[in-house]
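Closing statement on the S-adenosyl-L-homocysteine sub-project.
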Amino acid sequence: MKFFFDYERKEVAEDYRSTQIYKAVYQRWLADFESITDLPKSLRSTLAGEWNIQLPRIHRRFDSVDGTRRYLIQLQDGELAETVYIPEEHRNTICISSQVGCALACTFCLTGQLGLTRHLTAGEIVAQAIVAQRDNLPWETRDDFNIVMMGMGEPLHNYDNVMKSLRILHDTQGLNMSMSRITLSTAGMLPAIEKLAEEPIIPNLAISLTGATNPKRDELMPINRKYPIEKLIEAVDRFPLKHRQRVTFEYVLMKGVTDAPEDARSLARLLKGMKAKVNLIPLNEAEELAYSRPSDAVVERFREILNDHHVDAFVRKNRGNDISAACGQLKKKWAS
Ligand code: SAH
C-alpha cells in the first residue's frame, strides 16, 4: 500500500479527484475512504485497497511540567520518529525530525552520538506535524502552529525528501502552510544551502553556528572541516530574503568553551552587517556530555556584548528539559 502522506497532490490522481482526496485527508481530517462520501462508492473501495491514509501511531508521549510534549512516533518499519510540541502564548511550535539519528556528530548534541540510522521519507516528515497538531490543537485553532525542522537529523542531508515534505505542507488544497511558518535549521551543509536558495518555495533559514571561529567550530562541529565558516557566511549572505526577513543563527553556550566575551566579539564581527539574529541556547546538559551550562549572568553578559555590537540576540527559553525534549536531547530516550 502506498503511504498517502508521501505523495504530492499531482501524484495521487487526476486533478479533480486528487483535490477531493487531499482536502478530505488534510483539511477534514478523514481517516478512511468510506467517510469521503463525495467520492463514488466503487472508487472509495478501489482507493482503500491502494492507499494507506492512516497516520502513524504514537508509540509514547512524554508530558513536561511546562506543557511541552515529546512524541515517539512509530514508523512502518518499527523505527521511531521523534517530535516535540511546544505550546506558547502567541505561537505554538511543532519541532519535527528529518532523520532517525544523525550523521554529523556534533560533540555537544546527543542525537549526534547515535549516528545515522536512516533518512525519513517525505510522508514521515509531514505525518509528524499532523500527529502533533491533532493531538494538541482543538478544531477552532487547528492552524495555530509553526513548524521548525530542528528535531533529529540534518534536514539538508535528506534534501529531496525534506523539499518534498515542504511542498506537501505548502499545498493550498492540503495544510496550506505558508513558508513563513516553517523554519529549516542546518548545521551548515553549504552546497545544499545554495541549492535551497534556488527553490520556488523557501522556508525560513536557521544556521547552527556554535563557534565563531574555524578552530572552535572544527572542534565542536566536524562539518566545519568540510565547509569552513567564512564560506558558510558568504553563502548565507547570498541567501534570498524577503523584506524584513532575517536568518537565525543558533549558538549553544557552553561554559569555558563558547561563552567568553571574546567569543561574543568574534560572533559579532562575523555577523556584522548581515540580516541576522542570534538565538543563544544555554547548553542542555546530559551525563553523556563533557560540557556544562554557563550561569545566567554569563549568558546575559554574552547577549549584551552582541547587542552592544548591534547584533540582535535572544536567549532561548529552555523547554521540555524534564522529558528530554529540549534542543540536542533527542535520542529516543525511554523508547521501550
Ligand atoms: N542538524 C540541524 C537540525 C537540528 S537543530 C542543525 O544542527 O541545525 C538542533 C539544535 O539544537 C541545533 O541548533 C543545535 O545547535 C542545538 N543543540 C544541540 N545539542 C544541544 C545541547 N546539548 N544543548 C542545547 N542545544 C543543543
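Residues 108-109, 150, 154, 185-187, 208, 210, 250, 252, 281, 283-284, 327-328 surround S-adenosyl-L-homocysteine (CB under 6 Å). With this model delivered, the sub-project is considered complete and its resources will be redirected to Aim 3.
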